[in-house]
Design brief:
The complex is a heterodimer of chains A (290) and B (298). Chain A is mainly alpha-helical and 290 residues long. Chain A has 14 helices and two strands, in the order αααββααααααααααα. In chain A, helix 7 runs antiparallel to helix 10 and helix 12 runs antiparallel to helix 13. Chain A is globular, with a radius of gyration of 24 Å. Helix content of chain B is 77%, strand content 0%. The radius of gyration of chain B is 24 Å and the shape is globular. Classes of the chains: A mainly alpha (290), B mainly alpha (298). The interface between A and B is large, with 100 and 103 residues.
Chain lengths: 290, 298
């Protein structure tokens, strides 16, 4: 192939720049916002921060329900942000772990053992995505009450996996289905059981797909706000999204933005770390037109 | 000879069902019972505001909506919203994927930038995004955003700008997910195929429609379906956040309003189930693309 003419390369670079700015600007804006003093928020240039400060972040960790002063005649309190962080960590780690285990079991059954009608099993599981979540939480609350899980983190651990499970089962079982039979057979002939063969051969092989499923799960549950705020009522029991939703943003705008960043940064770092495997996993799962 | 094989196969099938059971159980508890409740409730006049049990009213709830102008308005907004955001997301996503398809210096960094809008948790970024576009009165950019808001609201009705800001957010985030998904698709295509196509036709536009799109079809189908079903998640988030201060009704928010503010669980259930047949039909069509029957192995 001939080298591309200079104007084509320039056009490509320009488009790349536009795309990058489009993707990053909102994130940059929120980061800048969280580093501002109240003074600068009102009078400064909205696009840059001149005197960056971490006071908004520090304020989040103040002792709970401490009075932080008045705006006009409205009392400002601090929030139990440390509790929220802890709850978020438990719920997210638990949900991702649970989703992966349950999806791996189901995907192995559908992709390798292939019970009669496995294709339709998989389709029905995937089809649960058409269920509208709008008022589903009304009957769901009955389930949660019946299980005595109201205002309990376990309620979210029960509900969150179903948000990502259909997609995870889909890509994992598609990948397992396309692994050639010989992969396992060698181990089976040597007398290893199916379980051993799974852990020593299939699981290591499918690592990128498992990572892809895990990252998808994390991204999906991290985007939920509705369920978190419906099922967890007590301030101590909330996750960060639910908790931030109870803030009065008109008064605590800077504080809320700082909280957003504190939640987003770890999630983004994890996703960035696994971004490469994520793409490789999606490719591996969908190859062969599955 | 066949007998032990058949027995082993039967055992295998039993194990398969056993392994499937946690997933199925989870879905039955969290989605199965509630959807059953919703279907049943949609046939009754259940309401917490009414004394006595719910009475069975058959298809009455559905019938009432079909002759209700307000419903058709919401249905129109819903369909337009879902289609417009999906088209925008897929178009931008395809653009991203094509931009990154060939290696160049700094590709990894641009890829990361493209990945971030999806990875940035929308449960919290929607708060930031919403309050950026509809800022509290005190910030330095409030006046500027206020002007835009007033211009849009003045032209289209109060709350229009809020609705657009959520739409914008949904497209921003969704295009990132679809871009990454399609990039994964392009990676799955052997580069020789694109090189062959280059010899076949000089027109990049033609190559795109004759080669790239057919090769990416399963990925596109999956992307379109996920985009349709998740189009409303961000809207629901903002709805919860702002106590419903969005003027354009979509079917989901209208149902929520009916159930929570109006206490009319029957009609609300019927309303929220209205879209399910359409989504199922779309899904069945798309299955033919991204879950094609096993092809002959090369």
């Amino acid at each position: 192939m001939n080298p591309r003419p200079w104007w084509k390369s320039l056009g490509h670079a320009g488009l790349l720049l536009v795309a990058t700015v489009y993707c990053l600007f909102p994130i940059y804006f929120m980061l800048v916002q969280s580093l501002k003093t109240a003074q600068e928020d009102v009078f400064g240039n909205p696009l840059i921060v001149v005197n960056p400060t971490f006071e908004n972040f520090a304020e989040l960790f103040e002792r709970e329900a401490e009075v932080r002063g008045f705006i006009g005649r409205t009392l400002r309190r601090s929030y139990p942000f440390l509790d929220w962080m802890e709850n978020t960590l438990v719920v997210f780690a638990g949900s991702v772990g649970l989703t992966l285990v349950v999806s791996l079991l189901a995907a192995y059954a559908l992709g390798r053992l292939r019970p009669p009608g496995f294709r339709w099993w998989r389709r029905v599981i995937f089809a649960t995505y058409v269920i509208p979540h709008t008022i589903l939480f009304v009957p769901l609350y009955q389930v949660v009450l019946a299980l005595h899980l109201d205002d309990n983190l376990l309620a979210l651990l029960l509900v969150y996996p179903t948000l990502a499970l259909p997609f995870c089962v889909w890509i994992l079982s598609a990948y397992f289905q396309h692994l050639p039979r010989e992969v396992e057979e060698a181990a089976l002939i040597e007398g290893a059981g199916r379980v051993r063969a799974f852990f020593s051969i299939i699981l290591p092989m499918s690592w990128p797909v498992v990572v892809a499923a895990g990252i998808f799960t994390l991204g999906t549950i991290a985007s939920d706000f509705t369920l978190a705020s419906v099922f967890l009522l007590d301030a101590q029991n909330q996750t960060i999204p639910g908790g931030l939703g109870t803030m009065d943003v008109a008064l605590d705008e800077l504080l809320a933005v700082a909280g957003i960043n504190l939640m987003a940064i770890p999630v983004v770092l994890i996703c960035a770390l696994f971004a490469r495997s994520y793409v490789r996993g999606l490719t591996a799962a969908m190859i062969e037109g599955a | 000879m066949t007998r032990p094989v058949a027995a082993a196969r039967r055992r295998e099938i039993r194990v398969a069902y056993l392994l499937l059971s946690p997933a199925v159980l989870l879905l039955l508890v969290v989605l199965g019972y509630p959807i059953g409740w919703e279907v049943w409730t949609s046939l009754t006049d259940l309401s917490p505001l009414k004394d006595g049990g719910a009475a069975f009213v058959g298809m009455e709830n559905y019938r009432r909506f079909l002759s209700d102008g307000e419903f058709w308005r919401a249905a129109t907004v819903t369909v337009v919203y879902a289609v417009v955001t999906s088209v925008a997301k897929v178009a931008i996503g395809v653009g991203f994927a094509l931009l990154l398809a060939r290696p160049f210096r700094g590709r990894a960094l641009v890829f990361l930038a493209m990945f971030l809008p999806w990875a940035y948790p929308s449960s919290v970024s929607v708060i930031g995004w919403y309050w950026t576009l509809n800022p509290p009165i005190s910030t330095a950019y409030s006046v500027f955003m206020g002007h835009i808001k007033q211009a849009v609201d003045g032209a289209l009705g109060g709350g229009a700008w809020s609705f657009f800001s959520v739409t914008l957010f949904n497209v921003w985030r969704g295009s990132s997910f679809i871009g990454v998904l399609l990039l994964a698709g392009i990676n799955a295509v052997p580069p020789e195929l694109f090189e062959c196509a280059l010899l076949e036709s000089k027109s990049a536009w033609r190559r795109f429609w004759m080669v790239t799109v057919p090769l990416l079809k399963p990925f596109l189908a999956l992307a379109i379906f996920l985009s349709l079903t998740t189009a409303f998640v961000d809207l629901a988030n903002v709805w919860m956040l702002t106590g419903g201060r969005i003027v354009f009704p979509v079917i989901g928010t209208q149902a929520y309003w009916l159930a929570i503010r109006g206490g009319q669980f029957g009609p609300a259930s019927a309303l929220s189930l209205m879209l399910v047949p359409f989504l199922l039909a779309v899904l069945l069509l798309l299955f033919r693309v991204f879950d094609a029957p096993e092809r002959e192995r090369a």
